[in-house]
Task: inverse folding
């Protein structure tokens, strides 16, 4: 109800209206997820366990699919062990995950969520293909952390006046780890229709999430606030204001968060953190968003955090 009220308060001129429309959330009978990494896998698993919809899970890499599904098995076993779900429910959810390396297998989804790496050209390419492959009623959502939704929507059409594809593009920006974090940011581009936005809000509620509405502005809400905080922590480390443990301890114990900023950066992925800081810096031309040199160096070294085995902490 709150989310719907907020949706209605967004400036009307900023939203396109289209007759080609996405269905309502109850009619989402099949979800597509593109990218089976940390975020995509989490989204697929939540859809299978909470909304109980079949999920076509696409990844360009067989290895990533295998790794993702092995991780899904581990999370489901943990849920069974902790009696959060029964073995039958876990088996049913697992059977709903249908892996593939073929993007064209998304030809029967009602809603698709893209979660490939934060590379603008890659997302634009995928959205131009999704607009062709997915049924015309399907909603095309992105999990981007920082790329303009308006720009992603624009990649679905060659004619800006034809909004039949761009009006069904929206962002459902889930938080990491998806099965745990309740928050999700719903961001509309300039072309996004009201029905698309409403359906995205309702579908995320079906996944057990609490949506917040944000405008299409660099970093949206969550990362506009979170990333400069993480970046500043890395600058404190690089300039010797404090060591790793002191930085994380004071924020953890002083602000009652589950982990400090450096550990959080490792969990998010340092490449993702750097990509978001670059967008904030370049899109606003504001020096307060300058990415830390040490963060750049860590990424250049291939030390990306938990996913690569080494970041500010060691995960080998
Ligand atoms: P990741 O690197 O863990 O996973 C990306 C997956 O996409 C990989 O499995 C890769 O094989 C696959 N992929 C690459 N190219 C592909 C293609 N052409 N087609 C299909 N699959 C392809 O990345 P992630 O951390 O899951 O991030 C995904 C998205 O979610 C990014 O846009 C990121 O900014 C956003 N995001 C990340 C976090 C986070 O904390 N990691 C939080 C919110 C949003």
Result:
């Amino acid at each position: 109800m709150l989310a719907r009220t907020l949706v209605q308060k967004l400036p009307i001129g900023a939203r396109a209206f289209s007759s080609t429309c996405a269905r309502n959330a109850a009619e989402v009978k099949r979800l597509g997820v593109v990218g089976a990494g940390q975020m995509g896998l989490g989204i697929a698993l939540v859809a299978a366990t909470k909304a109980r919809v079949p999920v076509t899970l696409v990844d360009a890499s067989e290895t990533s699919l295998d790794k993702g599904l092995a991780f899904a098995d581990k999370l489901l076993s943990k849920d069974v062990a902790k009696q959060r779900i029964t073995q039958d429910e876990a088996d049913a959810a697992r059977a709903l995950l249908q892996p593939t390396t073929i993007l064209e297998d998304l030809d029967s989804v009602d809603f698709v969520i893209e979660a490939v790496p934060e590379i603008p050209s890659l997302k634009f390419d995928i959205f131009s293909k999704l607009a062709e492959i997915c049924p015309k009623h399907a909603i095309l959502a992105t999990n981007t952390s920082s790329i303009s939704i308006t720009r992603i929507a624009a990649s679905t059409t060659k004619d800006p006046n034809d909004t039949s594809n761009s009006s069904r593009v929206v962002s459902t920006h889930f938080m990491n780890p998806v099965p745990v974090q309740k928050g999700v940011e719903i961001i509309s581009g300039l072309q996004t229709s009201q029905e698309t936005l409403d359906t995205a809000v309702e579908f995320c509620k079906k996944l057990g999430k609490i949506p917040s509405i944000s405008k299409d502005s660099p970093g949206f809400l969550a990362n506009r606030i979170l990333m400069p905080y993480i970046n500043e922590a890395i600058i404190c480390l690089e300039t010797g204001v404090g060591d790793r443990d002191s930085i994380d301890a004071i924020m953890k114990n002083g602000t009652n968060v589950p982990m400090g900023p450096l550990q959080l950066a490792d969990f998010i992925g340092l490449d993702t953190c750097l990509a978001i800081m670059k967008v904030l810096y370049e899109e606003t031309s504001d020096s307060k968003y300058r990415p830390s040199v040490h963060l750049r160096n860590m990424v250049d070294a291939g030390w990306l955090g938990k996913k690569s085995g080494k970041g500010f902490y060691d995960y080998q």
Summary: The chain has a mean pLDDT of 92. The radius of gyration is 19 Å. The chain has two domains: 10-214, 223-304. The chain has twelve helices and eight strands.
